[in-house]
Specification:
Elements (H helix, E strand, L loop, with lengths): L1 E7 L8 E7 L2 E7 L12 H4 L13 E4 L2 E4 L2 H13 L6 E5 L5 H14 L3 E5 L13 H5 L3 E5 L2 H4 L1 H12 L3 E6 L5 H5 L2 E4 L9 H4 L6 E5 L5 H14 L2 E4 L6 H7 L1 E3 L1 H9 L3 E5 L9 H4 L4 E5 L5 H5 L2 E3 L9 E4 L5 E4 L12 H8 L1
Parallel strand pairs: 6-7, 6-14, 7-13, 8-9, 8-11, 9-10, 11-12, 14-15, 15-16
Antiparallel strand pairs: 1-2, 2-3, 4-5, 4-16, 17-18
Helix pairs in contact: 3-14
Length: 358
């Protein structure tokens, strides 16, 4: 018998509704959430493929030896971690979080860090800094006369791109800025401007084309200085700004923790003896040499990937479908969701893991 449960898509920060289809305790597919106000009964390929994360998972607490995972048990792994924590002071611990954790999990991780006295807690923000500016809403896209898109919105965030398409049908002009030669968004833009590495003087080319009826949508920035340029561009012209992130709760993480760039993450790892990484894969933005041998690595994730192979211990935690909680999407809307995949295992959730370590 098929079981269908509602959840929030984990593939980006747009916050689409998604249904998970299970049969006999196994996830077998997805189905669009017909009544969800953001995606209105549609899911993109990224959302439909989100269930692939249920495949190739680490199922048990493990100790990593010579790049191989050896299954262990919670008692043994917890003791190894506690022994390491007992041997250092607060300044020698670093915690890397991500926008893949729920708001409730991030609160608990922050409580754990505060209890230990750890100040080096944050996440890699993919060059988006912490910012205070009010963000635009999705409804603002519909009323825009000019839309400036930074990055390939059509490919990476199709359900947001759908709103751009509808706005273009109402007469809006789409300008695309990107550091690639060609993309789906550039091919659908009224004007495409390619930049080399950084926005720089390309900003001047669009300044006179924006006003209070414009919106800037960015799903990538090359550095924090480039984001500052976009903030200034929006402020000078009265345009609205909508940053779009690649993780479902990155806006929630920004509301609670420091957003680091690559160099900051490297320095923090280099200055630490114990590194706790929660639901993140640093190999997406760092090299093996940046991480291996720098600290004792506690990896709280069930992803069986290259980063797992250089960790010291692994606590699987629970996959996104096994959780209940809230995500804050890129327009600032906090959405709650319940457990959508009843998977039989004895894994502890992140909150339970941090409770035990505390």
């Amino acid at each position: 018998m098929l079981d269908i449960k509602h959840t929030i898509c984990p593939s980006c920060s747009v916050g689409c509704g998604l249904n998970i289809v299970s049969k006999d305790g196994a996830v077998v597919g997805t189905y669009p959430y017909k009544r969800h106000p953001i995606n209105e009964g549609k899911n993109c390929l990224n959302g439909r493929n989100s269930i692939l994360q249920f495949d190739n998972q680490i199922e048990n607490p493990s100790i990593v030896k010579n790049g191989e995972l050896e299954e262990s048990d919670y008692e043994t792994v917890f003791k190894l971690i506690k022994d390491q924590l007992a041997s250092i002071d607060a300044s020698e611990l670093a915690i890397i979080c991500s926008g893949n954790s729920t708001n409730e999990e991030l609160d608990r991780i922050k409580e754990f860090a505060d209890g230990f006295g750890c100040e080096k807690i944050g996440f890699y923000g993919y060059n988006f800094p912490n910012f205070a500016v009010d963000v635009a809403s999705y409804d603002d896209i519909a009323g825009a006369k000019t839309i400036l898109a930074i990055g390939d919105i059509y490919r990476e965030n199709p359900l947001l791109a759908r709103r751009i398409v509808l706005s273009k049908e109402n007469g809006a002009c789409l300008i695309n800025l990107d550091d690639v030669e060609k993309s789906i968004t550039s091919l659908n833009a009224d004007e495409f401007i390619q930049f080399d590495g950084h926005l720089g003087d390309k900003i001047d080319a669009v300044k006179g084309k924006l006003d209070e009826n414009s919106i800037i949508i960015a799903n990538k920035v090359c550095c924090k200085d480039d984001f500052a340029l976009l903030e200034s561009l929006a402020g000078e012209n009265g345009a609205k700004l909508l940053p779009v992130f690649n993780a479902p709760n990155m806006k929630g993480a920004m509301n609670k923790l420091d957003s680091w760039d690559v160099e900051e993450v490297k320095n923090i790892i280099g200055d630490s003896k114990v590194l706790i990484v929660v639901k993140d894969n640093p190999f997406e933005y760092l090299s093996k040499d940046d991480i291996k041998g720098k600290a004792f690595i506690v990896n709280i994730s069930n992803e069986d990937n290259a980063f797992a192979k250089i960790s010291d211990v692994i606590l699987p935690g629970k996959s996104w479908g096994e959780k209940a909680g809230t995500f804050t999407n890129c327009e600032g809307l906090e959405q709650s969701f319940d457990i959508s995949a009843e998977i039989e295992n004895d894994n502890l959730g992140e909150v339970e893991i941090l409770d035990e370590l505390a």
